[in-house]
Amino acid sequence: MPENAVTARPDAGGQLAHLIAELQGHGLRVEVPMESRQGGAGPADAGMLWIDGVAATVPTSADYAQASPYVLRAEDDGWGVYRDGERLAGAQPFQRPRYYDLETSDGIPYWKIALLHLDSLASTVIQTCAYWGNADQCTFCGIGVTLANGRTIAKKTPEMLAEVAVAARDLDGAVDATLTTGTTATPDKGALYVARCGQAIREASGLPVEVQFEPPRDLEVIDQVAGLGIHSVGIHVESFDPAVLARVAPAKARTGIEGYFLAWERAVAAFGAGQVSTYVILGMGEDPALTVEGCRRAIDVGVYPFVVPLRPTMGSLMADLPPPPPEYCESVYRRVVPYLTARGLGARGVAAGCARCQACSAMSLLENNGDNGGRTYLPLITSG
């Protein structure tokens, strides 16, 4: 967080979680320049800012965001989030990182190699995917969009990423690195290459690293990834509803939810409880009861389910879908968090990656929002 970011209020938990859920559902109109992320393999259209000191990414470019009741407005001394003229929270827009002005010796801008997502260096190391452009394409993904727009390069090398990581750490205070990859048509699905890139970053910069990949055919690959000194892994099922998974991610559906659990169990054994995470996307037509039960079962084996709202990506097959209602997302967060608390898992214990950062979800704000007995309040909110 920058030195001039707003300090979080003591009561930030539930109220701030509600506000961030609202912003991630409705979007935010902006009256000041701010850095954002377009395209990519994960949540895109990410306007990045700190809200009362809490890192958040919210939609700012989508059409529906232009109709949002929320607006980011400059003040005499800082910025604020407003609705209907009422100031709801202080804010600090994310400014262009200094290392973006650098380039490699062969002329590749650093920002085409890895972006800074608030305080986390992030890169898709292979910006192509075996599923893109065919019947197996994940409908929510925009991995090919950024490459087609010339905003990145197809393959980053370990040496490139290590060079950029040192600059991001020294010039802009990056605290970890998050690496993902398009799936490759190899038995390891790209896991070993992304892990070698992570190893190079760790050795050059000392930053903790998360790498993300699909379950490899041979689960021994997960042990090899751990052997390269990687701190955390993301193995993303996307949905615990089998019917939704088959519709939105056919190749992942062939692995099957049980296949993901086998991979997670192997990964938890290698990396430890809480250092394995999975994206769980809300708003794709899933059964919320299956979602909560799947999260509970994942938590039981030591996996952190990172629950996020669908953020429709321009250029993806879901580009025209609306995001899910904020109240639906908040109701799921409030049903999942008590399982995390009971298992002793939380965002603060994650070494690196999306579950550590938490900017794309309001879930972690509820993890410590309990009563005097340490319990999380569970209001009677319907989830259907």
Describe the model.
The strands form two sheets. Strands 1, 2, 3, 4, 5, 6 and 7 form a seven-stranded mixed beta sheet that branches. This protein has a seven-stranded mixed beta sheet with strand order 8-9-10-11-12-13-14. The protein is globular and about 55 Å long. By secondary structure, it is of the alpha/beta class. A hairpin with a 2-residue loop joins strand 3 and strand 4. Helix 1 crosses helix 10 and helix 6 crosses helix 8. The N terminus and C terminus are likely disordered.
Short description:
The chain is an alpha/beta fold and 384 residues long. 33% of the residues lie in helices and 18% in strands.
Described by the principal axes of the CA atoms, the overall outline is: globular
Number of strands: 14
Structural class: alpha/beta
Distance between the termini: 36 Å
Count helical runs.
Answer: 11
Summary keywords:
disordered C terminus; 11 helices; globular; seven-stranded mixed beta sheet; alpha/beta; 384 residues; 18% strand
Task: Please write out the topology.
Layout: H1 12-26, E1 29-30, E2 36-37, E3 46-51, E4 54-58, H2 63-66, E5 70-75, E6 78-83, E7 86-93, E8 115-117, E9 120-124, H3 143-148, H4 158-172, E10 176-180, H5 191-205, E11 209-212, H6 220-227, E12 232-234, H7 242-248, H8 250-271, E13 276-282, H9 288-300, E14 303-309, H10 326-343, H11 354-357
Parallel strand pairs: 1-5, 9-10, 10-11, 11-12, 12-13, 13-14
Antiparallel strand pairs: 2-3, 3-4, 3-7, 5-6, 6-7, 8-9
Helix pairs in contact: 1-10, 4-5, 5-6, 6-8, 7-8, 9-10
